[in-house]
Automatic annotation (TrEMBL):
Cofactors (names): Mn(2+)
Keywords: Hydrolase, Manganese, Metal-binding
Organism from which the protein derives: Veronia nyctiphanis
Uppermost EC category: hydrolase
This protein's name: inorganic diphosphatase
GO molecular function: inorganic diphosphate phosphatase activity; metal ion binding
């Protein structure tokens, strides 16, 4: 029986590209595997898949009775709803260690780098498996996305070296130009339903038994939100009530100015203000230099809740 390789709910490019890349590697070393996903590809992810000739992995929401290899998270809130009825055989991730637990031994590849695909590249090197040109392309794009073309504080020398290696394999001479193409796709918000934007890159976290949702929209110019910012704020308020969340935040990240505007709706906004050392102004905070949810947003908020 083949294992399923799957990323988190509301999958991003790292989650989907990582599932494809890891499933191929597993098959090459004699461990039958099939890539799957827990949601629809974002516009950026679809751009990457189209660019390198891939179909999106199978949409599969239930994994009871299956063997599962988890990609790009180890959080119960981000895993399949019935993950407790599945057998987790492995985790590859680059985030903090979450609350997934297992009853059997498993393989874990967790590294403090900018992207899960960087870790997967290390796995290819470890097993001595050649990376196909098209898979190298999607892995490269995932790393550029997660590291914000190397601007993110999560970016490491390992991420940069992996991109350089993958670019050679994929035959891409100007990977930074490719990265800008991806972010221009991310920046196209006209005509997109507000809820789709809020959930484009959204993750739930358990913070001291409080459910906290954090979304992020990365663009090349924050002015694209000028006409819809009030609608975004209204929708995160609805999302908070619908999911019985303590707090919902939406990061509007300007990759050129290298900072983020944080939209906040919370049962206790003082916790958010304490986390970042700034007062909210009508539910908004500007965070200069903040690009990474993983490294700059989640840790101080988790500490404030604790």
């Amino acid at each position: 029986m083949a294992m399923y390789v799957v990323g988190h709910k509301i999958p991003d490019s790292d989650s989907i590209c990582g599932a494809i890349a890891l499933a191929y590697l597993k098959n090459q070393i004699g461990e039958p595997a099939k890539a799957s996903r827990l949601g629809e590809p974002s516009p950026e992810t679809q751009f990457i898949l189209d660019r390198f000739g891939f179909e999106a992995p199978e949409l599969k929401m239930s994994y009871a009775g299956e063997e599962v290899y988890i990609v790009d998270h180890s959080e119960l809130t981000q895993a399949p709803d019935d993950i407790a009825q599945a057998t987790i055989v492995g985790i590859v991730d680059h985030h903090k260690l979450g609350d997934l637990t297992t009853s059997t031994p498993l393989e874990c590849w967790i590294r403090p780098v900018g992207c899960s695909n960087t870790v997967i590249k290390m796995m290819y090197d470890f097993h001595g498996v050649e990376i196909p040109k098209d898979i190298a392309g999607i892995m490269l794009c995932a790393i550029l996305s997660d590291t914000v073309i190397f601007k993110s504080p999560t970016c490491t020398t390992a991420d940069i070296r992996c991109v350089e290696d993958l670019a050679k394999i994929a035959g891409i001479e100007d990977y930074e130009a490719l990265g800008m193409e991806m972010f221009k796709v991310k920046s196209a918000v006209d005509g997109t339903p507000v809820r789709d934007l809020v959930l484009r890159d959204f993750k739930d976290f358990n913070m001291n038994d409080n459910l906290v949702g954090i979304g992020q929209l990365e663009v090349v110019d924050l002015s694209v939100f000028d006409k819809i910012k009030a609608d975004l704020e209204a929708d995160i308020a609805k999302l908070k009530e619908e999911g019985q969340r303590h707090t919902v935040m939406l990061l509007l990240t300007d990759i050129m100015k290298e900072g983020s505007e944080l939209l906040v709706v919370s049962d206790d906004v003082n916790i958010v203000e304490r986390a970042y050392g700034k007062d909210t102004d009508a539910g908004r905070i500007w965070l200069d230099g903040v690009l990474s949810r993983k490294k700059q947003v989640v840790p101080p908020l988790q500490e404030a809740f604790a």
